[in-house]
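Extended Data, panel c. Modelled sequence:
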Amino acid sequence: MTSTPDVSPTPRALLTRFLNGSGVELGPGHHPMPILFPGVSVRYVDRWQPEENVALFTNVEAGATFTRPDIVANLDVDGLASLADASQDFVIASHLLEHLADPLTQIAEIHRVLKPGAVFLVFLPDRRYTFDRKRSPTPLAHLIADHRDRVTVVSDEHIEDYLRKTDVWDPTWTPEQQREEFDLHRQRSIHVHCWSEDEVLPVLEYTVLEMGMRWDLLDAMFVADEPEGFEFGFVLRRSSATAEPAVLAGKLRLSWQVVAARSRQFAEAERERAEAIRQLARLRALPGFPVVRSAWRMQRRLRQTLAKR
C-alpha cells in the first residue's frame, strides 16, 4: 500500500495536476513552479543566466536562487523559435505575460508548440491587489495593435506609466537619470500590462475568434480562493475538437463563468464560517457563558432522557 504524498492543498498547487509528460516553464526566475505530482519533466526558458538575474534584481530576498535556464531566449524577440511545432505536453507561464511587449504573439507561440490535448498553465497578478492598483487595465485594442506591429521593445510610455503609478517616479531626475531608470526597468522587465481576473477573458476569446487558437478551459483559481489573494490562474487545453471558433469561444466563456461562480460561492461560505467562529469566540468571552453552557448541556441531556421513555 503506497502512502499519500504530502502535497499542498492550495488552489494554485492543485492546478498542476493537469501537467503530464515533458514541457517548459517560461521565465521561472527565482520562483519556478513547484511540481507536486509525478510523471512531469520540466525544462526552463529564461532571458538571463542566474548571475545576470542577481545583478539585475537586487531587490529580491537575500539568498534567493535563480533557476538556470535550459534554453536562453528573449521572448519578446525570439519567441519560442527553439521549440518545434506540437512538441510540448505543457507550457507554464507564471507571472510572465504581463512582462512582455506583445503578449498575444507569445500566446500564439505557446499554442504553436503545444501538442493537441496539451495544456497551458497560466498565473497572472490581479492589478487590484498589487502595486498596479493605480493603473488602468491594458485594453484589448492596445494588445491587438502591439501584435499587429510585432512590438519587441517595451516603449518609454509604458515604462513611464509604470514608474509614475507605482510611486517610483522621482520628479527631480535629470534627463540622464530618467534615461538610466528607463533602461534599467526595461531590462528588469516591468509589468508592461495589467489586468484583473475578469479583464483577461476577452483577451482569451480574441485568441480563439480572431487568431485561430483552440482553447478549452479545464479549471481556474481566482483571487478569492486564497487568503489575502493577489493572483488568478487557469489551465487551458489545446483542443483537438472541430467546432467552429464561435462555439469554442462560447464554451470558454461559459466555463469561465461557471468556475468563477464556484469560486464566489466557496469564498462566501468561508466568510460565513469565519464570521460564525468570531461570533462564537465573542460569546465564549462573556462572563455568564459557562453558566449558560452548563444549562444548555443539562437541557440537552434532559431531552435525551425524555426521548428514551
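DSSP finds ten helices and seven strands in the chain. This feature is highlighted in the accompanying rendering.
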